[in-house]
Amino acid sequence: MLALFLRDIRLNIRAGGGALTGVIFFLAVIATIPFGVGPDLRLLARIGPAILWIGALLSCLLGLDRLFQADREDGSLDLLVLGNDRHMLALTVLTKCLAHWAGSVLPLVIAAPLLGLFMNMEPLAIGATALTLLVGTPAITFIGAAGAAVAVALPRGGLLISVLVLPLTIPVLIFGVSASYGATANPDPFLQPFLILAALTLFLAVLGPVSAALALRHGTD
Amino acid sequence: MRLIAENLGGERGGDTVFSDIGFALQDGQALVVTGPNGSGKSTLLRVIAGLLPVAEGSVRIEGGGEAFPSIASACHYLGHHNAMKTALSVAENLRFWRDFNGTGHVGVEAALDMVGLGSIGHLPFGYLSTGQRRRAAIAKLLVSHRPLWLLDEPTAGLDKASEGRFAALMTRHCGAGGMIVAATHLPLGLDGAKELRMGG
């Protein structure tokens, strides 16, 4: 499993892996918002956490279609499925998800504080948003894995995956944003939505890989 | 260990590709599957491996013990694709598959030497020619031990010398008690292999 994790990380970093495309897309989305919204600094600070979350969510969806498709094209996926007796396929998928998250999504979380400055956010709000992103984005990857597994045989499945996955990520977005606001706006609670966000991630860490494994097992042809 | 298929049938997209295939392989035996294009050779191999559902009949492995309870766990499947990443070096690819598949057998360097790629393990897989890629994929069969090899057109793209080397590797595998099921158009140079003709 460690070998698979390291291989996927390595592929992500090497040429053509697309580790940086997500970050650049994230940067592009966030950088255009102040131009669109106008120079009202207080408004920017208020919508900042929500915009960061939406930007991160969309950037997460960007690279998901390659999660299994690259392995399918070169035949690796067959061998990963055949390895089911030694490494349960759901665990293989979980490992691939974690590698994808560490390679493509973690850079977004690291870039988020910097982009928060663009939105004139306070340090506390920036910290809270980065923390909720750190806890919440794995959930998006896990749901995305199920979508990617369903669409693995489709040559241009990227958009389909986004459409399939987006409705399911809405709860993650809602609790992520409300926890970020809870840290700064006084009457709103921080801990409750944050804990629900963490629970969502843990829940989807099981459900996503298991359903993705099921789809992959029946998708071999 | 025995591989037994009885009345085996396979289908693709709802159409029956072949039916009523039966064979039994013992330790050290090889089966060469021949037949025209579209007669279901590749489908048969994928059904045996368990990548496609069995439409009728059964295929099973006996005497695999705890290490190889099912065909999937006992087989190396070499399909049309080489299952190697072009961005990684040949040695990195092999090292990954050895670690993932477990039950290490021949070392990576030694396996590359055995297929005649000893000097280019450091090159990215994407830089290799078709024949060299196939040889690297064959080296993948050597780095972890599996008693059953399922080979789909294993010699596609290989030159004469490599074909000979691969025949020797297959003979050695059978000599050590392994089993081979190979779908091919070209003679593989396997002495004493059973033959299964498909389609007509």
Automatic annotation (TrEMBL), chain A:
<feature type="transmembrane region" description="Helical">
    <location>
        <begin position="159"/>
        <end position="182"/>
    </location>
</feature>
<keyword id="KW-0201">Cytochrome c-type biogenesis</keyword>
<dbReference type="InterPro" id="IPR003544">
    <property type="entry name" value="Cyt_c_biogenesis_CcmB"/>
</dbReference>
<comment type="function">
    <text>Required for the export of heme to the periplasm for the biogenesis of c-type cytochromes.</text>
</comment>
<keyword id="KW-1133">Transmembrane helix</keyword>
<dbReference type="InterPro" id="IPR026031">
    <property type="entry name" value="Cyt_c_CcmB_bac"/>
</dbReference>
<feature type="transmembrane region" description="Helical">
    <location>
        <begin position="12"/>
        <end position="37"/>
    </location>
</feature>
<protein>
    <recommendedName>
        <fullName>Heme exporter protein B</fullName>
    </recommendedName>
</protein>
<comment type="similarity">
    <text>Belongs to the CcmB/CycW/HelB family.</text>
</comment>
<dbReference type="GO" id="GO:0017004">
    <property type="term" value="P:cytochrome complex assembly"/>
</dbReference>
<dbReference type="GO" id="GO:0015232">
    <property type="term" value="F:heme transmembrane transporter activity"/>
</dbReference>
<keyword id="KW-0997">Cell inner membrane</keyword>
<feature type="transmembrane region" description="Helical">
    <location>
        <begin position="98"/>
        <end position="118"/>
    </location>
</feature>
<dbReference type="GO" id="GO:0005886">
    <property type="term" value="C:plasma membrane"/>
</dbReference>
<keyword id="KW-1003">Cell membrane</keyword>
<feature type="transmembrane region" description="Helical">
    <location>
        <begin position="124"/>
        <end position="152"/>
    </location>
</feature>
<feature type="transmembrane region" description="Helical">
    <location>
        <begin position="194"/>
        <end position="216"/>
    </location>
</feature>
<dbReference type="GO" id="GO:1903607">
    <property type="term" value="P:cytochrome c biosynthetic process"/>
</dbReference>
<keyword id="KW-0472">Membrane</keyword>
<feature type="transmembrane region" description="Helical">
    <location>
        <begin position="43"/>
        <end position="64"/>
    </location>
</feature>
<dbReference type="Pfam" id="PF03379">
    <property type="entry name" value="CcmB"/>
</dbReference>
<keyword id="KW-0812">Transmembrane</keyword>
From TrEMBL, chain B:
<keyword id="KW-0201">Cytochrome c-type biogenesis</keyword>
<protein>
    <submittedName>
        <fullName>Heme exporter protein A</fullName>
    </submittedName>
</protein>
<keyword id="KW-0472">Membrane</keyword>
<keyword id="KW-1278">Translocase</keyword>
<dbReference type="InterPro" id="IPR027417">
    <property type="entry name" value="P-loop_NTPase"/>
</dbReference>
<feature type="domain" description="ABC transporter">
    <location>
        <begin position="3"/>
        <end position="196"/>
    </location>
</feature>
<dbReference type="InterPro" id="IPR003439">
    <property type="entry name" value="ABC_transporter-like_ATP-bd"/>
</dbReference>
<dbReference type="GO" id="GO:0005524">
    <property type="term" value="F:ATP binding"/>
</dbReference>
<keyword id="KW-0813">Transport</keyword>
<keyword id="KW-0547">Nucleotide-binding</keyword>
<dbReference type="Pfam" id="PF00005">
    <property type="entry name" value="ABC_tran"/>
</dbReference>
<dbReference type="GO" id="GO:0017004">
    <property type="term" value="P:cytochrome complex assembly"/>
</dbReference>
<keyword id="KW-0067">ATP-binding</keyword>
<dbReference type="InterPro" id="IPR005895">
    <property type="entry name" value="ABC_transptr_haem_export_CcmA"/>
</dbReference>
<dbReference type="GO" id="GO:0016887">
    <property type="term" value="F:ATP hydrolysis activity"/>
</dbReference>
<dbReference type="InterPro" id="IPR003593">
    <property type="entry name" value="AAA+_ATPase"/>
</dbReference>
<dbReference type="GO" id="GO:0022857">
    <property type="term" value="F:transmembrane transporter activity"/>
</dbReference>
